Amino acid sequence: MSEPNGAIAAQTVPETGGENRPGVLRRIMSGSVGRNLGLVIALVVLVIVGTVTAGDRFASYDNFLTIIRFASIIGVISIGLTFVIIAGGIDLSVGSVMGLATVVASLTAVQAAATQSSWLLMVLIPVGVGIAAGLINGIVIAYGNVVAFMATLAMLVGARGLAELISGRRTQIVIETGFLQFTRSSIIGVPLLIWVFLIVAILAWFLLNRTTFGRRTVAIGGNREASRLAGIRVKRHLVYVYVLSGLTAGIAGIMMLGRTTAGTSTHGGLYELDAIAAVVVGGTLLIGGRGTIVGTVLGVLIFSTLTNVFTQNNLDTSVQSITKGLIIVVAVLLQQRFASRGPSGT
Fold first, then answer.
1. Which pTM does this prediction carry?
2. Would you write out the chain's pLDDT as a tens digit for each of its 346 residues?
3. Secondary-structure percent of the chain, ordered helix, strand, coil, rounded to 5
4. Per-position DSSP letters for 97-118, written without gaps between them
5. 172 φ/ψ angles, rounded to the nearest 5 degrees
6. How far apart are CA 102 and CA 105, in angstroms?
């Protein structure tokens, strides 16, 4: 009796292994690797379209640097927003906070103090403004139990109004030479703005994928109550997440000051929508619990490349907006499909 059983087992094992191989492949392709591969393919297709339609004007080293430099500021904001959305929240205030940071840092008194002491003051102040705004958002949402949409909407309006009040609705020119030399410098021919974007992306990837903070962020977005019962201090962690979002908005404010040499309350207008679009297209679930930094970076680059292709071909910006809207709708529909199929892809 043992020999037949052994024969049956010997026949069954290879068949089971053979059946599992496609299942493993489906799980991989339906996970972050598959989603990111799809984004890479979409980006390559856009590059091909740009090369075919615009020729050397598009397919040049300088133009590729322009695309990445254009993506860098909104990319830094999007990276911070990725953590918020993974945690099941939303932050509509990032654009306004960035604008407020540029206004405060470019005040005459601040620039004079920076000239007398160090231009680093104009770096620390926008970061401080962003952290303060994020801290307020986090406390109101986590401990005040205010819905994130309403709390950050209030910050959006309040930060924009405060920026207008402080600046008197005037554009403030940056004249501090040390700050300008630093922010407009290049390393091995690559603008500093791009290096900042790259460094922030690498640090964020490490934070999300290799630290307890990242695992807790994903857990809270997946099931907040279960995370609380597991011993995670959910409210405190949410405050940290919104502070992180404010921090990246402050860093983006520094980058904007360096690129435009001006602080104004109009900086960052609708940036929150562009950032959310990039995060969603990058594969982060709007309901929380899943997301990748690599996907967000690719999402930002896709929109930046799309804008450049339209610009190089002198196409109507209205058509560009419609195209972006369609991309967002398709991304959300795909999210719903994959979310309903589950991690196994079945």
1. 0.87
2. 444 444 444 444 444 455 555 565 555 555 567 678 888 998 999 999 999 988 888 889 999 999 999 999 999 999 999 999 999 999 999 999 999 999 999 999 999 999 999 999 999 999 999 999 999 999 999 999 999 999 999 999 999 999 999 999 999 999 999 999 999 999 998 999 999 999 999 999 999 999 999 999 999 999 999 999 999 999 999 999 999 999 999 999 999 999 999 999 999 998 999 999 999 999 899 889 999 999 999 999 999 999 999 888 888 778 878 888 888 888 777 766 665 555 433 3
3. 80, 0, 20
4. HHHHHHHHHT-HHHHHHHHHS-
5. -105, 120
6. 5
Query: 142 and 236 in contact (C-beta within 8 Å)?
Result: yes
Domain ranges (residues) in the chain: 76-309
Residue owning tokens 């109550």: 225
Q: Which pair of structure tokens corresponds to residue 195?
A: 């290096």
- DSSP letter (8 states) at residue 190: E
**What residues are paired with 191 via a beta bridge?**
186
CA distance 142 to 149: 13
Residue with tokens 């059983």: 5
DSSP 147: -
Go through the chain and tell me how many residues it has: 346
